[in-house]
Amino acid sequence: MNFPTESEAKSIMQEAQIIYPEHIIHLEDVSVRYRVPTERIGTFKEYMIRRLKRQVQMRTFWALKDININVSRGEIFGFVGDNGAGKSTLLKVVARVLRPTKGRVIVRGRVAPLLELGAGFHPELTGKENIFLNGSLLGFSNREMLDKYHQIVDFSEIGEFINAPIRTYSSGMYARLGFAVATSSNPEVLIIDEILGVGDENFQKKCAVRINDFCRRGTSILLVSHSMDTIQSMCQRAAWLDHGIIKAIGEPAQVIRAYREKER
Predict the structure, then answer these.
(1) Cα dist from 60 to 33, 37, 42, 84, 242, whole Å
(2) N or C: which end of the chain has fewer CB within 10 A?
(3) What DSSP character marks residue 165?
(4) Among 121, 114, 117, which residue's Cα sits nearest to residue 91?
(5) Spatial contact of 89 and 222, defined as CB atoms under 8 Å apart
(6) Which one-letter DSSP state was computed for residue 159?
(7) Orientation of helix 171-182 relative to helix 201-216, angle to 10°
(8) Which phi and psi (to 5°) does residue 59 adopt?
């Protein structure tokens, strides 16, 4: 994906912060605790029977522990870490999909989450029907989605498949339609979880242009990616998460260096 150079990205951020100086995301001592069964239970019925008999053994673990982060308007903030480190859980907390066990979360403005491929899509509905379904989940009215519909279809490049069931779509088509819907407005916060590498080169360029336009208008972006090149070229700051704990936070190059040293 053709993102701006490091110096260009910093210039975009500085320009946005002059106009939009305050923090738009504030996480204070945020922790998330999960309780999961210690053994696999095949069906919900079996789970309920065993739970009534008090035969379900549970274990507790902290997916996030005492997270403190501030993100400014127009800033692109990246997260790196191994699978299971807590990155997606953190994004869900910011997106208000998940309530933290402890701590305080302040997010100012509309959030457009792209948390996973096809999130909010129903496989048996057509692309057109899913546009309106996804839009309603993002808080848009039917009238607003009617106004945006042709713009979304044009950007996603789905073409005649817009009237086909979503289950017939490739992963790239899923991502394109999801990105087009989520970015059809001007969100204050855009959350992107590991989907920017999907799609052909031309579509990735379109995504990069739209993301840069958002930054110039003051949109803050939270980005999770396993591509260190993407994090370094696109983000102004980054954080390394390891088992729910922030191990490093700051300049992307420094954070990536610390993360890679841990892998050796």
Answers:
(1) 7, 9, 20, 15, 17
(2) C
(3) B
(4) 114
(5) no
(6) G
(7) 20
(8) -125, 150
For residue 196, give the amino acid letter: L
Q: Give, for 198, the enclosing helix (H) or strand (E).
A: none
CA angle 208, 80, 77 (to 5 degrees): 50
CA proximity to 35, closest of 55, 52, 56: 56
Confidence band of 199 (pLDDT split at 50, 70, 90): low
pLDDT tens digits, 61-101: 899 999 999 999 889 999 999 988 999 899 999 988 899 99
227 residue type, one letter: S
Q: Which two tokens mark 138?
A: 């993002």
CA–CA separation, 143 and 156 (whole Å)? 20
Phi-psi region of 130 (alpha: psi -120 to 50; beta: other; left: phi over 0): alpha
Of 17-26, 134-143, 250-259, minimum mean pLDDT range:
17-26
Question: What are the structure tokens assigned to 90, written together?
Answer: 């953190």
Residue of 38 and 180 predicted with greater confidence? 180
Q: Give the CA diameter of the chain.
A: 62
CB 260 within 8 A of CB 232: no
| CA dist 99 → 35, 78, 102 (Å) | 14, 21, 9
User: What does the pLDDT average to over 131-145?
Assistant: 84
